[in-house]
Amino acid sequence: MTERVYNFSPGPAVLPVPVLEQAQREMLALPGVGSSILEISHRSKAFLEILAEAEANLRRLLGIPANYKVLFLQGGSRLQFSMIPMNLLRDSGKTAEYVVSGSWGEKAAEEATYEGEMRVVWSGKATNYDRLPAWSEVPRGPRAAYLHITSNETIQGVQFAADPDSGDVPLVCDASSDFLHRPVDIGRYGLLYACAQKNAGPAGVTIVVVRDDLLDRAPKSVPSMLNYAAYAKENSMQNTPNTFGIYVFMLITRWLEGEIGGLNKMLEFNRAKAKLVYDALDESGGFYRGHAQRPFRSLMNVTFRLPSDDVEKRFLAGATEHKLCELKGHRSVGGIRASIYNAMPMEGARLLAEYMRDFARRNG
Q1: Which residue in 34, 194, 219, 283 has its CB near the most CB atoms, within 10 A?
Q2: For this structure, is 358 an active site residue?
Q3: Half-sphere exposure of 235 (CA within 13 A, CB side)
Q4: What is the pLDDT of residues 176-216, one digit of tens each?
Q5: Cα dist. 101→148, 226, 267 in Å?
Q6: What is the pTM of this model?
Q7: Which of 104, 122, 130, 273 is catalytic?
């Protein structure tokens, strides 16, 4: 068996070993089916049971009320950047409002401009996206179709630690990079979406949780393959869904409920992992310079710089020798980015912190 490294990739990201092992055991033939998940029909009894369990498990984990639909889509969050204004803004005569807290918020806001009026109500660009707003800083207009936020910015490493309150304006949240890392008050959101490849499975599945009243907003000009109501009507099966991705997502929800013990326990675990890495950063006397201001630090993506590009290259080379991999920062900002999603074991965070301390001693 090939020895596994500690994979700090921002996505596709590390998956729970028990989930990978079960998928490996069942790859040739699902129990009682005799065929692989890669081979069976999406309309077969076996897959419909997988789809139903995936939704039921997610509803329990997040406490999703009955007046919300759970949709399993494709196209990643980038497609949601377009689908959201198509369904909720187009022909509405209203304004889409965006909190732009980093690179992904920027991209989401740009896509909205193709469907109607868009207004950035708060932006962190002036400080290079190193902080988040207090809600007193976020004005809300009387003509708002929705308010869009990004709960965790993977590139800059800033994260909302609690569910915001948007009042009567439907709150739309891109939760792609911190989905299922903590409990969420779904009732505060009109629509919450996440691509799977950070915390919830392989690339290719996008989960959308949407309140029933928002399904009626899409004008007739929205094509059926981009229409939330059409997906809800067909139980996410207008076309062939990503059967394998949904199967792995179902296994991950089982892991979260069974082995982890729910999202409160997952949050405790994530806080402990992040503390290990941030403590090593803070104890370095400025050798490591964190990007995010302390109150807004992400539990999922720890971003920092070293004294020079040369030193960063040596850091990355040494990390690889210690089997600490995929730590290079995003090409747009450079530096180091340690993505410590749900499935990153505590040992990985501990070894990274030890390496950081040792490297700072030898190179500081």
Answers
A1: 194
A2: no
A3: 10
A4: 999 999 999 999 999 999 999 999 999 999 999 999 999 99
A5: 11, 26, 22
A6: 0.96
A7: 104
